[in-house]
Specification:
The protein has 156 residues and is of the alpha+beta class. It is 52% helix and 19% strand. The chain contains six helices and five strands. It has one domain: Beta-Lactamase (2-Layer Sandwich), CATH 3.30.450.
Length: 156
């Protein structure tokens, strides 16, 4: 079981290495948010989308079929990324390999943080983490893979 988690964690880390923006601003969030929206619509995904910059929400959309709980999940996923500067799915997988309780170890209350995939950090070259891109509504690995695929498409 641990072998499978280690392999998935390696895949996730490798898949995020090149997700680096040269710059990121409100217009970038709008363009990227619309790309995520269009791809989700095309695939029939009922998701909620959120893009933040420095904690400010620049893009938000909820498809029909989502609920306020998706917003709660997004908030907790974003908090995890802002706290640890890693994707929420990477943190979920890392927690699976720990001997002790991850949330307790880092002193993270479950009301504000969650270990579930779907939120990735916005990394800007020569700056670091400046925001988050998050989706909620699919299985956590699907949330993560979906958002990273669209970001990779945007960056290429």
């Amino acid at each position: 079981m641990k072998e499978k988690i280690v392999k998935e964690l390696e895949r996730v880390k490798e898949g995020q290495k090149d997700l680096i923006f040269n710059a990121f601003n409100n217009d970038t969030a709008w363009t990227l948010g619309n790309m995520i929206y269009n791809k989700a619509k095309e695939l029939g995904h009922a998701i909620t989308i959120s893009i933040t910059l420095g904690g400010q929400k620049l893009f938000h959309y909820s498809f029909e079929g989502t609920a306020p709980t998706n917003d709660d999940w997004i908030c907790r996923k974003e908090n995890t990324v802002y706290k640890l500067f890693k994707s929420s799915y990477e943190m979920y997988l890392s927690a699976q390999l720990m001997e002790e309780d991850f949330m307790e170890y880092f002193g993270l209350p479950n009301t504000d943080y969650v270990l579930a995939g779907g939120s990735i950090p916005i990394r800007v070259k020569d700056v670091g983490v400046v925001g988050t891109i998050t989706v909620s509504g699919l299985a956590q690995d699907e949330d993560h893979n979906f958002v990273t695929e669209v970001v990779r498409e945007y960056l290429s």
